[in-house]
Amino acid sequence: MAADRRIVIENCAIATVDAHDTEYASGHLVLAGNRIESLGAGAAPEGLENVARRIDASGHLVTPGLINTHHHFYQWITRGLATDHNLFNWLVALYPTWARIDEPMVRAAAQGSLAMMARGGVTTAMDHHYVFPRGSGDLSGAIIGAARDMGVRFTLARGSMDRSEKDGGLPPDFAVETLDGALAATEETVRQHHDSSFDAMTQVAVAPCSPFSVSTELLRDGAQLARRLGVRLHTHGSETVEEEKFCHELFGMGPTDYFESTGWLGEDVWMAHCVHMNDSDIAAFARSRTGVAHCPSSNARLAAGIARVPDMLAAGVPVGLGVDGTASNESGELHTELRNALLINRLGAHREAALNARQALRLGTYGGAQVLGRAMETGSLEPGKLADLVLWKLDTLAHASIADPVTALVFGAAAPVTASFVDGRQIVEDGRLLTADEDAIARATRDEAQRLAKIAAEA
Ligand SMILES: [Zn+2]
Predict the structure, then answer these.
(1) Distance (Å) from CA 255 to ligand 1 centroid
(2) What is the full DSSP assignment across 288-307?
(3) Which CATH code, of 1.10.10.10, 3.20.20.80, 3.20.20.140, 3.30.1360.120, is assigned to 66-371?
(4) Which residue in 194, 253, 352, 391 is a FRET match for 361, CA 20 to 30 A apart?
């Protein structure tokens, strides 16, 4: 068998985001096949064989690839609607449109969402997809195919809804699946697509949507299904005061206690938002090692509130970052969420001590890998881990005069990506995707957005 081809990257600042936050002001990395072989200060070792490429990365910071832990790809074609609503009003305004999606729409929206994240340094993406209209085609297959074509590492959280208006839920009756139908389709998706290997490009999680759109049975049976199949669990939790009120009225307890009563706390679970958490909720997450996907822009857009990220980190809760669906965060970029997480948390109780630049970068990299259950494989730059990394260009107008590269990346303007590698393969060069045609995707998403708007208007 031929030795792995090597790629050598030199003359760059490096933020490894390892356990000691090791950084090099000027260092090198050696990639071999799909792994990081070595890294350190100064130039690469001499005499390396099979070097296919040598990159002079002067003026760059190299970090682990960014990891997005919460998204809804299909919303790419319903951006800019209901812009002045809170969560519940926004959902009620958009459900009737969302319930008309079909496979070509979902494929285009997935390509748009993935392209926007990938060219901004995301190397591991996830999609929480929970709208499966009857007869709409193979939506999970379309989403997974889009991620595979783009070359991005990916987790599909196979979502579901079965609590509609007639059962006291929020979605309209025609937008939901049955309990048995949702469980069977989720199991089928896991069996067909989930890969548990170290360098897996596709994983599947079990992901009923939220307490106000899912029955207690679907939560309980979904948790049992995930554990029987050995996959992770994902849902929305404690997003708004309205959700908290809903849980007290229907279940006689707050969201965290309700999740605990249905088997939804555990180290194999991560939950989006977790904005309205009291001290005992945070302690329960820490005790059970339940993860959190912090989505600062979406929480601001929907006026949900500020999640207590500094308290969660202090308690030992694993926290990653998410853009959330792009109907509540029209930008869909994760690298700007590093900055937003830092700034928004400083508006909370801990003020300037809330988060620093290194902690924000950790949320978007290692923290994301933790909540997706992939911290052994990715999320930091260490020998033996997967070659998922980004070269950020920091020597131009926007960043050149900022004192420190990690500060420049987090506090500064959205930094350009010179190169992004996933599994040792380059997918972005000079801010452009190598694996897809951005302009064609832009046209397709515009056309599908217009087609959906027309269908929804005629319904
Ligand atoms: Zn969401």
Answers:
(1) 16
(2) HT-EEEE-HHHHHHTT----
(3) 3.20.20.140
(4) 194
